[in-house]
Amino acid sequence: MDVEDWKSQIKRGSLEFCILLLIKQRPYYGYEIISVLEEYPIVAAKENTIYPLLRRLLKGEYISSSWQESTEGLPPRKYYTITEKGNDYLNAMSLEWDNLLTAISEIKGALNHG
Amino acid sequence: MDVEDWKSQIKRGSLEFCILLLIKQRPYYGYEIISVLEEYPIVAAKENTIYPLLRRLLKGEYISSSWQESTEGLPPRKYYTITEKGNDYLNAMSLEWDNLLTAISEIKGALNHG
DNA sequence: TAGGGGTACTGTGTTGTACGATGTATGTGT
DNA sequence: ACACATACATCGTACAACACAGTACCCCTA
């Protein structure tokens, strides 16, 4: 039970949130998502985490996917797009996220306010 | 897989963070912690979640405990105090928490910056 | 005497996610 | 031949939150 363990606990939920935040902006393919998240160690995750997560989101119809050929002999890519249901879900998550930030900041200040 | 599920995922790690943030300020007893967290639905949790969590923190020596008599015939209370190790742990968590907030805010703005 | 609230704790089992390990395929570079 | 990057995938495990259900004790009130 050290900080590394805690970091992997924190990713629970945060990862899903980050991925939907990304895909909301434009279609991303799996490997690309992994690369983007790699820039932020706190939410970095490998294939064995991201692909199952994407499959879960697909299954829940929060995102949809479509294959697209790559130029220059690269393997084809599976692009993910957010659905309307996914957008609703993301909005609900954003609200709860704000609640969490509020809770933490009030808890931090508990001494001063009673 | 709805927002309720996501909320319980988000609690992983956040709960531990909140409890250490609380206890850092002054000693709290278990029932008191549960009551305080109840005010924030996003981090609210019942006995069967909080007590095992406190036991984990005790076992890892992030907190220590001591019994104290209550006035007016109330049952004695077990007060939890943060240890030095717990403080170090909490500081490390705070850093990672900031990293998470930064990551999310940058991911939200990915369209505008590249 | 029955019920409710404060206070601490235990046990069993389910669920869901991160993650370690591993596999499959293609193309490029050495 | 071998490593490395791109790209997607599966299997199994560990662990925290949590549902549900208890034990035990003391006080106060209806």
TrEMBL record, chains A, B:
Lineage: superkingdom: Bacteria
Annotated ranges, domain Transcription regulator PadR N-terminal: 19-91
A family per Pfam: PadR
Classification via InterPro entries: Metal_resp_DNA-bind_regulator, Tscrpt_reg_PadR_N, WH-like_DNA-bd_sf, WH_DNA-bd_sf
Protein name as it appears in the record: PadR family transcriptional regulator
